[in-house]
Amino acid sequence: MENLKINQEKITDQDIKRVSKRWILASQITWNYEKMMGVGYLYAMLPILRKLYKKSEDLKEMMKNHVQFFNTTPHMGGFILGIDAATEESGGKTAKEAANGIKTGLMGPFAGVGDTIFGVLLPTIFGSIAAYMGQNGNVTGVVIWLLVNIAILIFRYFTTTIGYREGTKLITSAKDKLDALTHTATLLGITVVGALIPTVVKANVAANFKTGDVTMEGQAILDQIMPSLLPVLVVAGIYFLLGKKKMTSTKAILIIMVASIVFYAIGLLA
Amino acid sequence: MEIQMWQIIALTALAFFAICENLSTSVLANQPVIIGTIAGIIMGDMKMGLAVGATLQLMILGVGTYGGSSMPDYMTGSIIGTVFAVTSGKGMDFGIGLAVPVGLLMVQLDVLARFSNVFFAKRVEAAVERMDFKAIGRNTWLGSLSWGLSRALPVFLMLIFGQNLVNLIVDYMPDWLMGGLTVAGGLLPAVGIAILLRYLPVKSYISYLLIGFFAAAYLSVPMVGVAILGTALAVIAFKQFLEKSQNVVAVNTGSAQEGLLDGEFED
């Protein structure tokens, strides 16, 4: 095995940082239905591949290998690149199968955790705050969100280095913590969503009811039953609709727009 | 107010930059409330951009493009919505009424961009065959054209030709439509929340949904306060979760030597 690595140059910290930068910038730029992030993966790994494989047919074989289908959460991909770099550095071309196993084995689970945390929960929490403040004309929430995104970017920059240093150890040691983190971030996200319903969904009943001489305002009656009763019902209704087959979010939006116009026209909502 | 040529160019560039930035560094992250604010600054009315973006934001909270799916493009919607909310003088709800259909139609162009990139991917593969490293890099970066133009071109065309159409709509728009759009602007965030609840494991976390609702609806706690409450609950849950998973490990090793430890577990 050693003779396969004879010509290999040493991978430096600088190389790993280059891979990290390339991954952040280009991972999705050539995203396409066929290879998804495959092209970005090759482009990111290229500086390391050129150092590791000095025979041109080896290099070509590995380049072809890395341009294949790959897709994960871009925020988590850096770990995989780092682990892959460490594996190929120690095994050379013989590590091709191992590298492929790491890539295909990790991209799914990492996407699961990454999409939940970076795709759903953080945008939910900070998007809610930014939008809530924004509706009141306050830009602070937007600034907070930008700062959070900068912090995430800095974290991403180091993920490749962490993956390279820790190698496959990372996956087993981080698993429990990642599960706990996903669990608690979900909890936080759902708490915020619960608060969103009464604060951002606005529905005012315009209709009044007359019984004899007494006029009762529709909205006041509803408020006595429960504050924000209508927003809760609307959210629950759409939630229920979305569970039906053939119902898409686009259709739900169109239904709400048409219903709004109709209910306004007949004087029920204002 | 008439839109100026420099504003059209700046907003077109913003649309190009925003999608590419989202795919890479992801600080502006293509989020309507952020992009709307920037569009508002360009239009000289930041508050309007913020308000339009905020409402659109609530419709797609936490809805991402997982595994290459496309979603309504309210980033582009927030640019168009902000511009026509400002230039028509009809306000935020009018802007949202335009932004929603624009965002929905733009889904098709997202698909087109993802499809067009197959072309550049093929060129990268050909470059690999030739061992042409420069061409690999070049064609990788050219993918930004498909993405950027898929947003920038429609924004440019809508801003150039949209004004007359929008003026026409404004002149002839009846009250039922304007009022209906205002109602829709208030109700549409419900769609975003419902979609989000479909993504999240609500059933196992229902008590936290109720806690959040209770805090906001009955105690009028503002959103940041709710986030603090949620963080407090999350920290407690985090510790419990880790302890539980450690206990599982302990119990597992314990059961392996059952005979020895039997007495200790009885206490």
As a percent range, the share of helical residues of chain B equals: over 70%
* Major sheet details of chain B: none
Which class of secondary structure composition applies to the elements of chain A? mainly alpha
Count of individual beta strands of chain B: 0
Q: What is Rg of chain B?
A: 25 Å
How many domains would you count in the coordinates of chain A?
Answer: 2
What count of helical segments of chain B does DSSP give? 12
Provide the residue-averaged pLDDT of chain B: 88
Mean pLDDT of chain A: 89
Straight-line distance between termini of chain A = 76 Å
Residue windows where pLDDT falls under 50 for at least 5 positions of chain A: none
How would you describe what is shown here?
The complex is a heterodimer of chains A (270) and B (267). Chain A contains 10 helices and 2 strands, in the order H-H-H-H-H-H-H-E-E-H-H-H. Chain A is elongated and about 95 Å long. Chain A folds into 2 domains: 2-197, no CATH class; 202-265, no CATH class. Chain A has 270 residues and is mainly α. Chain B has 12 helices and no strands. Chain B is mainly α and 267 residues long. Chain B has 2 domains: 5-200, no CATH class; 202-256. At the A-B interface, helix 1, helix 2, helix 3, helix 5 and helix 6 of A face helix 2, helix 3, helix 6, helix 7 and helix 8 of B.
